[in-house]
Amino acid sequence: MQRNDQNPEMRDDVALEVCIGLLELSSVARGVEVADAVLKEARVEMLCASPVQPGKYVMLFTGGVQDVRASIARGAGIAAGDLVDQLLIPQVHEQIVPMLRRRGGTINGNLDAIGVVETTTIASSILSADAALKTATVDLIDFRIANGLGGKSFFTLTGEVSDVRSAIAAGARSAQERGLLAREVVIPRPHPELVRHL
C-alpha cells in the first residue's frame, strides 16, 4: 500500500480521487453498529455519524473510491432492511468535503448573489450541490444536513448573479428529478446584514 507523504496514514488515492459515501438508516441503534463496520472495513474518514430527525441515523464519510465503495457495501449489508438511502459520488466537487467538515462561521462584506437549494433528504442535497458546483463558477458558503431541520438539508452558494442562477437551476433540477426538491431561491445583491448571518 502506497502512503501519502503529507499524511502517512492515508493512501495516495485518497488525495487524488476524493469520493464521498452516505448511508441513512431508519434505526439509530443499527446506525451505530453500521458506522463502526464502515470504519473497520476500509480506510475512510467519517465526516459525521449521528442521529437525525425524525429518528434516523446518518453517516457521511470520505476517502479513496475503492475504500468508500467497500465501506458502503459492508454497511448496506449490515443495515439490511433498516437502510433508507445510500449514496456514492466517486469524484465529488472539491468544495463539498471541506464544507461538510466546517463548523460555523460568518461572512462579512457584500456578495453579488446568493442561492439556496433546500431538499427533503441528505443524499439529494449532496447530489444537488455537486451538480450545482460543477455547472458554474460559484462558491459553496454553507451546507447543513438534517439536524434541527426536520430531516431536510440545504446548501448556499455565492458568485455572480448569472452563475448563481445557472448553478441553482442545475442543483434544483437534480433534486427535482428524484422528487426531493423542497425549494430553491436566488437573491441578487443580498443585504449586507443578511450576509452576516449566512
What does this structure look like?
The structure is a single chain. Helix content is 37%, strand content 30%. It is an alpha+beta fold and 198 residues long. Strands 2-3-1-4 form a four-stranded antiparallel sheet. The termini are far apart. The N terminus is likely disordered.
TL;DR?
This protein is an alpha+beta fold and 198 residues long.
Q: Helical content, roughly?
A: 25-40%
Structural class: alpha+beta
- What number is the mean pLDDT? 83
Overall shape = elongated
Tell me the number of strands. 8
Strand content range: 25-35%
Number of helices: 7
The level 1 CATH classification of the largest domain is Alpha Beta
- Unreliable runs, pLDDT <50, ≥5 residues? 1-16
Order of helix and strand elements from N to C terminus:
HEHEEHEHEHEEHEH
Provide the descriptors you would attach to this structure in a database record.
198 residues, alpha+beta, Alpha-Beta Plaits, four-stranded antiparallel beta sheet, 7 helices, 37% helix, 30% strand, disordered N terminus
Topology:
Elements: H1 12-16, E1 19-25, H2 28-41, E2 44-52, E3 56-63, H3 65-79, E4 83-89, H4 96-101, E5 113-119, H5 122-133, E6 139-145, E7 153-159, H6 161-177, E8 181-188, H7 192-195
Antiparallel strand pairs: 1-3, 1-4, 2-3, 5-7, 5-8, 6-7
Helix pairs in contact: 2-3, 5-6
